[in-house]
Design goal:
The structure holds 2 protein chains of 2 kinds. In chain A, helix 4 runs antiparallel to helix 5. Chain A folds into 2 domains: 29 residues; 76 residues, no CATH class. Chain A is mainly alpha-helical. The model of chain A has no long low-confidence stretch (mean pLDDT 87). Chain A contains 5 helices and no strands. By secondary structure, chain B is an all-alpha fold. Chain B contains 13 helices and no strands. In chain B, helix 2 packs across helix 9 and helix 12 runs antiparallel to helix 13. The model of chain B has no long low-confidence stretch (mean pLDDT 91). Classes of the chains: A mainly alpha, B mainly alpha. At the A-B interface, helix 1, helix 2, helix 3, helix 4 and helix 5 of A face helix 2, helix 3, helix 4, helix 5 and helix 6 of B.
Chain lengths: 108, 228
């Protein structure tokens, strides 16, 4: 397993280096329009949303749209706290506390 | 100013970012350790990949048993923003020779890009300044990753500490500051719908490329079709 993980990491590193190097060499005197600069913001938004939604909606591979799904409840509360407070580290800690609390009090 | 002074100026420029970099690096190291990565692997990743978003996504996908090919795809997509950043820095770095270009490209990050490009717009572009900024961030990222990894080695199983929820919570915290317009909200909601549809109808983890690509296309359509 360790060998496979190291192989994966090297693969990711190689692809990441490609993204940081390729256009710096190939494109000469490039002027990137404002629209492209605005468009790249959508990429991480789409990628992270894709990862977040199923991990809250289907923590055990199947969609659980119920009050019994503590991930979904804690996720929604965390989102609200993050939106209200803008405090990054604090939000994560409160989020984890909420899920621990839900498990302890409600026996999820 | 000498080259050494420029280098030190770059190192000093990242000081205000230390707290932010440290907390994400510690969180990454800790969660990677909890996800079953060895101290060696998780540090190797910080030293060779050096991209927070991609590293967090990788451990999340490893936990959920995502095929390696999809992990490679997803990290490439999330890092594709570097294509544009490096292109816009390329006009400066090119004249410094291939060696410098390889080194500075390898060390490129969101933070170093932001600091360097704003410095280059106001001052004479200088490779030692960019190296100071980039290396300062790189070293901090590596050290705090290791600290997080060591911390993770001492803590118990992920369930008992609620750490299995830490990754989704961290991701919420990462993307929320990026969402500043109704278009961003639209893309976020559309991607949520796409990933749910993909989750139901596509085999295993194939909702990842499906929703990522469609969500990004929706963003492109909103951005390029709007009136001036």
């Amino acid at each position: 397993m360790e060998t496979e993980i190291v192989g994966l990491i090297i693969g990711i590193a190689a692809l990441t280096f490609f993204t940081r190097f390729a256009f710096a060499v190939v494109l000469k005197k490039v002027k990137i329009s404002e629209k492209w600069n605005r468009w790249i913001v959508y990429i991480p938004i789409a990628v992270f949303t894709t990862i977040i939604v199923p991990s809250l909606l289907a923590p055990n591979e199947e969609i659980e749209l119920s009050i019994q799904n503590e991930y979904l409840i804690a996720g929604i509360v965390t989102l609200l706290i993050a939106y209200k407070t803008k405090n990054l580290a604090g939000t994560v800690i409160i989020g984890i506390s909420i899920i621990l609390l839900l498990r302890a009090l409600l026996g999820f | 100013m000498s080259n050494a002074d420029k280098f030190l100026e770059g190192i000093k420029a990242v000081t205000p970012l230390t707290l932010g970099v440290a907390s994400f690096a510690i969180a990454y190291g800790l969660l990677a350790r909890k996800a079953g990565l060895s101290l060696f692997s998780l540090t190797l990743m910080s030293l060779s990949v050096f991209a927070g978003a991609a590293q967090f996504l990788t451990i999340s996908m490893l936990i959920s048993g995502t095929p390696f090919i999809l992990i490679l795809f997803t990290t490439f997509v999330v890092n594709s923003r570097y294509l544009l950043m490096s292109a816009s820095l390329g006009s400066y770095t090119r004249k410094w020779g291939t060696g410098w270009q390889i080194l500075l490209s390898f060390l490129l990050s969101d933070e170093s890009y932001a600091l360097t490009i704003s410095y280059f717009m106001k001052n004479e572009p200088n490779k030692y300044y960019q190296l100071g900024v980039s290396l300062g961030l790189y070293i901090k990222w590596a050290i705090f990753t290791l600290i997080g990894g060591l911390l993770g080695s001492f803590l118990g199983g992920p369930q008992t500490w609620g750490l299995d929820f830490a990754l989704p919570a961290t991701f919420i915290v990462i993307i929320l500051p990026m969402i500043t317009t109704w278009r961003h909200v639209t893309v976020c909601l559309a991607t949520a719908v796409f990933s749910t549809i993909g989750l139901v109808f596509l085999p295993t983890k194939w909702y990842i490329p499906f929703a990522t690509v469609l969500g990004t296309i929706v963003g492109g359509v909103l951005e390029f079709w709007k009136r001036k």
